[in-house]
């Protein structure tokens, strides 16, 4: 099955080499610290509204990528593998850059087009509904008959 | 594991393993790549739909409950606990891998048990959160929450939330199953007989990947 260990070519001694546990705990504190910073920022924003949401979103994305880097590099040990292995993972992963930008831009363009050409959609978006005090209290006329509940 | 490799090693001239890892570990990496693109597709489609909407429910309003705290307004607290549990179980997993390098069976088993407990705690948290949201009337195709601007929200929010956290929760569940199998094999002494604990490393890679995905789910659903 998958336990085909080629003992002649893979460096077997390294499989028994002592595994340093110090970087593990360091990584743990870094991950915990980053998460706490994210929570602190979110709480400050909730209380004061000070860092504007779009600035905060950028910060969150950077911090998330930092966390991802530490998990992959240290916990998954990729940083300590040979360069060939790092590259066979890192290079295809770069597709995500295109993937995210292209699709988010597409979503944004769709929103703009719909706001320009679909008047009903804009109206629906500007219609405020009574806050959910009673369950399903505001029976909106737009509800399709036969929809659940 | 790149120790003891002479400088200027020619990897591609034949006779060597160019990635210097065994077959199963390399294939685990490639599987995780494909899984990353599956999750990436989910999260990016969520982002696309969110970008195409004029308004969206406020996560701090939706995810504000904590077990046993009644209706108190506690945004982010519960999900922080879940994040902490998962990071912690990732740490115990690496410690199990480290113990495997020493060939210390008892220590491997001990840390595997801790990792499994962490996974089960995370699943319990998620079960509570789903039950709570379901009790509030949220489910696939049903969204009781209003948009930030007070208008009626579509069901996109709940559909994406339950699909993506459900898919992630399923990964956690299968990760726990894999870890249980690894624990049984450790206790039976299978890895001692084999002479190495590389299977623990492969299970570990999967487990860390689950943690990695959670980092992104956490940001996309609870923070942004």
SSE order of chain B, one letter for each helix or strand: HHHHHHH
In N-to-C order, the SSE pattern of chain A is HHHHHH
In the CATH scheme, what's the topology name of one domain in chain B?
Four Helix Bundle (Hemerythrin (Met), subunit A)
Percentage of residues in strands of chain B: under 5%
Number of helices of chain A: 6
Number of DSSP helices of chain B? 7
Rg over CA atoms of chain B? 21 Å
Unreliable residue runs of chain B = none
Q: How would you name the oligomeric state of the polypeptide chains in this document?
A: heterodimer
Query: What form of chain A results from the Cα inertia axes?
Result: flat
> Largest sheet of chain B, if any?
none
Terminal-residue CA separation of chain A:
51 Å
Describe the global form of chain B. Answer: globular
**DSSP E strands of chain B, number:** 0
Poorly predicted runs of chain A are 1-9, 12-16, 134-147
Which percent range describes the beta-strand content of chain A? under 5%
How much is the average pLDDT of chain B? 92
InterPro entries (chain A): Cyt_c_oxidase_su4_prok
Membrane topology (chain A): Multi-pass membrane protein
Subcellular location (chain A): Cell membrane
Protein name (chain A): Cytochrome C oxidase subunit IV
């Amino acid at each position: 099955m998958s336990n085909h260990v080629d003992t002649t070519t893979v460096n077997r001694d390294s499989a028994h080499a002592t595994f340093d546990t110090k970087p593990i705990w360091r990584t743990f504190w870094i991950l915990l610290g980053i998460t706490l910073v994210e929570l602190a920022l979110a709480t400050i924003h909730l209380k004061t509204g000070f860092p504007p949401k779009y600035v905060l979103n950028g910060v969150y994305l950077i911090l998330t990528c930092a966390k991802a880097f530490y998990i992959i590099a240290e916990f998954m040990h990729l940083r300590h593998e040979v360069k060939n292995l790092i590259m066979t993972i890192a290079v295809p992963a770069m597709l995500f850059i295109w993937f995210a930008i292209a699709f988010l831009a597409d979503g944004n363009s769709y929103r703009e087009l719909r706001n320009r050409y679909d008047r009903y959609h804009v109206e629906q978006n500007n219609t405020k509904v009574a806050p959910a005090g009673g369950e399903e209290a505001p029976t909106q006329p737009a509800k399709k008959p036969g929809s659940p509940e | 594991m790149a120790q003891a490799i002479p400088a200027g090693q020619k990897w591609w001239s034949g006779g060597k393993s160019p990635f210097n890892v065994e077959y199963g570990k390399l294939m685990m990496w490639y599987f995780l790549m494909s899984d990353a693109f599956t999750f990436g597709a989910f999260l990016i489609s969520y982002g696309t739909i969110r970008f195409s909407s004029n308004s969206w429910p406020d996560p701090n309003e939706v995810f504000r409950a904590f077990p046993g705290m009644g209706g108190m307004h506690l945004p982010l607290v519960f999900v922080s606990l879940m994040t902490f549990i998962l990071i912690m179980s990732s740490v115990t997993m690496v410690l199990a891998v480290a113990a495997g390098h020493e060939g210390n069976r008892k220590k491997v088993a001990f840390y595997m048990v801790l990792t499994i407990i962490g996974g089960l705690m995370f699943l319990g948290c998620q079960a509570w959160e789903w039950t709570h949201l379901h009790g509030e009337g949220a489910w696939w195709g049903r969204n009781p929450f209003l948009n930030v601007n007070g208008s009626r929200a579509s069901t996109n929010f709940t559909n994406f939330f339950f699909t993506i956290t459900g898919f992630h929760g399923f990964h956690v569940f299968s990760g726990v199953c894999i870890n249980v199998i690894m624990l049984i094999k450790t206790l039976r002494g299978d890895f001692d007989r084999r002479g190495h604990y590389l299977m623990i490393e492969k299970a570990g890679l999967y487990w860390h990947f689950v943690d990695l995905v959670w980092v992104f789910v956490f940001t996309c659903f609870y923070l942004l």
